[in-house]
Each structure stands twice: as structure tokens, then as C-alpha cells.
Write a structure and sequence with these properties.
alpha/beta
Length: 154
């Protein structure tokens, strides 16, 4: 299972969907990072939903590689990456991501959310796309091994 690929779905570009298997290798992580280069090289706005509802967290090497890529391509991320939202129902994962962003702030708008629908709405809004017809959320919400978060009461 550690050789499982990380999903990097660009079928609905400029909206990209990323999801992680229960375990992945450093090579799979490096492949994920490398997939951002062609998106940045298009020099067109894009955003992504980062579905981190699996129990596997990036290790220190993975986090350092991502920070290095953000630093190397910071100008391109600032220009073309209009927003990203990470989906996690785990306080631990959200805490780790928050800590990472304190040390290495992302060069693009980022939000932590608990459902793919929230994530998609945020990214679509950043891209200036309508949120009236969610496309990624319905497709991937059911594939999660975790139950979706209960609806918020307002």
C-alpha cells in the first residue's frame, strides 16, 4: 500500500482534486509535487481541493520537499494558484497543517475545512466560478472512508 499513488485529478481544470491513499511513499509524494509544475507552467489561474481525510500524514522529508517547491516557484504560485482548501476532520491533521503554515506560509490563499463541499465552494469562489453546481464534492465525498462532517447549524 505504501506504493499507492496520490490522486491528482485535473479533469475539471482549473479545479484540481488531490486525495491520498492510506499510505504513500516518498516517491509518490515527489510525483505529487512534480505535477504542480505543468499547472504553473500553463500560466493560467487554478485552484485545488486537497482531501486529507486519510490517516497518513506527510513526513518531515515530504513537508521539507513541499516547502522547497513553494519557495522555488513562489512567484508562480502567487500569480496562478488562486486558492487551495484542505479537507480534514482530524484535529491532529489540522494542527499539523496550521503549524506548517506558521513556519512556511503558503504563497497562495489556503483554508482548512471539514468537507469537500466546503473546500470546493472556497476554491470555486477564489477562481470566480459558480458554486451553485458542485462537481467534485458529490463525486468524492462518498469515496471517503470517513463519514462526512455533520451539517453546521446556523
Amino acid at each position: 500500500m505504501a506504493n499507492a499513488k496520490i490522486i491528482f485529478d485535473t479533469h475539471q481544470y482549473p479545479l484540481v482534486y488531490i486525495a491520498y491513499p492510506d499510505a504513500f511513499s516518498d516517491e509518490a509524494w515527489d510525483d505529487l509535487i512534480a505535477q504542480f509544475d505543468p499547472l504553473l507552467d500553463r500560466k493560467q489561474p487554478f485552484g485545488w481541493v486537497n482531501d486529507a481525510r486519510t490517516p497518513h500524514l506527510p513526513n518531515a522529508r515530504n513537508r521539507a520537499a513541499l516547502a522547497a517547491h513553494h519557495k522555488k516557484r513562489a512567484a508562480d504560485y502567487r500569480e496562478w494558484a488562486k486558492g487551495a482548501a484542505t479537507v480534514s476532520q482530524s484535529r491532529l491533521v489540522r494542527g499539523v497543517i496550521t503549524a506548517i503554515e506558521w513556519i512556511h506560509p503558503a504563497p497562495f490563499p489556503h483554508r482548512l475545512v471539514s468537507t469537500t463541499a466546503e473546500a470546493e465552494r472556497f476554491v470555486r469562489g477564489r477562481l470566480g466560478l459558480s458554486s451553485s453546481r458542485l462537481t467534485i464534492a458529490p463525486m468524492y465525498e462518498q469515496q471517503s472512508k470517513l463519514a462526512p462532517a455533520p451539517p453546521r447549524r446556523t
